[in-house]
Amino acid sequence: MDKKQSLHTHIKNELLSRIKNSTFQKGEKIPTELELCKEFDVSRTTVRAALNQLTLEGYLERVQGRGTFVADKKVSQTLSQTVKRYIDQIEVQGKIAEIILINLSVIPATTSLQAALNVPLNDPIQKIERVRKANNSPTQYEISYIPWNVAPGITKEQAETSLYKALKNDFHVSIAKTTEHIEIALSDETTSYYLNSEIGLPCFYIETVADNNDGDKIEYSQSYFRGDKTNFVIERYYPDKDEE
To answer: Are 138 and 226 in contact (CB under 8 A)?
Structure first.
């Protein structure tokens, strides 16, 4: 064990390694706290701290009266340049993807939307609230804002498939670039309700602004991803020629 590691961190990392290398299979019940205490020669408090952290991070699930089990694998989504839809990304992982429209309305542009979308104050903006699911479990709550003059009259059907595909095919609007800002946020009452989680759950929070080829703002969105059910893949491509 690394001398700089605490005991519970060492145990957490060892158990996580067993989960990732499939020593512990999905849905398998792991050893009891007492058994882990004996294996690692530590107190129950130390074992419990390790299990709590793995549960919070979404690798374990505790079932009252039954024990602690290995959770399903997290949904993996790419943040690299990709044309794959959410449904395509999820289905390739063997999961059933679903997008559910919560609200579709038209609101006047506020000062924050005016700044994000570069539109006049009070201009009509389509507000689209959606929940994305994998295997019927919510993974993402998203609020998208699209100016009315960009794509007037977005429908429920378009919102529940792919907004970007609908923009391109139905409104002849192509997305050329997206700028994403990522940080950690704790779920509040609204977010936890739609994500079916406890209030205060750590979430990935991503703000996205989409531009067309002319640099016009096409969409602004705010997305909350369950931190215990989602991870992200980032691919970077580097030129062969050394940069000066």
So the answer is: yes
**Would you say 226 and 203 are in contact if contact means Cβ atoms under 8 Å apart?**
yes
Q: How far apart are CA 71 and CA 14, in angstroms?
A: 16
With 0-12 / 13-18 / 19 or more C-beta atoms within 10 angstroms meaning exposed / middle / buried, residue 157 is exposed
Q: Is the C-alpha dihedral spanning 30, 31, 32, 34 positive or negative?
A: negative
What pLDDT digit, counting tens, does each position of 123-140 carry? 999 999 999 988 888 989
Strands (E), 10-169: 60-63, 67-70, 75-78, 97-108, 124-134, 137-147
* Distance (Å, whole) CA 73 – CA 93: 10
The alpha carbon torsion through 72, 73, 75, 80 (nearest 10 deg) reads 180
Alpha-carbon distance 211 to 56, whole Å? 36
Which helix (DSSP H) or strand (DSSP E) does residue 192 occupy?
A: helix 189-195
| Model pTM above 0.70 | no
What is the tens place of the pLDDT at every residue in 163-214? Answer: 888 999 999 999 998 888 888 888 888 889 999 998 888 888 888 999 999 9
Q: Tell me which residue of 189, 221, 217 sits closest to 205, measured CA to CA.
A: 221
Q: Which residues contact 74 (CB under 8 A, 6 or more apart)?
A: 58, 228, 229, 230, 231
Q: Which domains does the chain have, with CATH numbers?
A: 7-70 (1.10.10.10), 75-233 (3.40.1410.10)
